[in-house]
Design goal:
126 residues, globular, mainly beta, 7-stranded mixed β-sheet
Length: 126
């Protein structure tokens, strides 16, 4: 069992930056592929970024490519999402998720993840 806790959200002006963190407890996050998802009010949860358990491969949604960077520090059992050039349409609750099967891949579907954090709010003002 692993517990995920996101932090780093907040209110920022358009063009600004935030770094989200996803810290794991219970078991080492290094065992699991990890992803970030977001959900805006009235919309479905959508994929943002994913990273393999070793960090050797990443994948991004087209909407954030070139602006967001996912990374991990397995020694700290933490995954990060660096968000630059933020836009009002990035406003959402951001969730991290981990896949307990511990495969060598990353996944973009939320159905592949079985551990989820509680989410952190990101609000970008225009």
């Amino acid at each position: 069992q692993v517990q995920l806790v996101e932090s780093g959200g907040g209110l920022v002006q358009a063009g600004g930056s935030l770094r989200l963190s996803c810290a794991a407890s219970g078991r080492a996050l290094s065992m699991y592929p990890t992803g970030w998802f977001r959900q805006a009010p009235g919309k479905e949860r959508e994929f943002v970024a994913a990273i393999t358990r070793t960090g050797d491969a990443t994948f991004y949604a087209d909407s954030v490519k070139g602006r967001f960077t996912i990374s991990r520090d397995n020694a700290k059992s933490t995954v990060y999402l660096q968000m630059n050039s933020l836009k009002p349409e990035d406003t959402a609750v951001y969730y991290c998720a981990a896949d307990s099967r511990g495969s060598s891949y990353y996944y973009i579907s939320s159905y592949e993840y079985d551990y989820w954090g509680q989410g952190t709010q990101v609000t970008v003002s225009s």
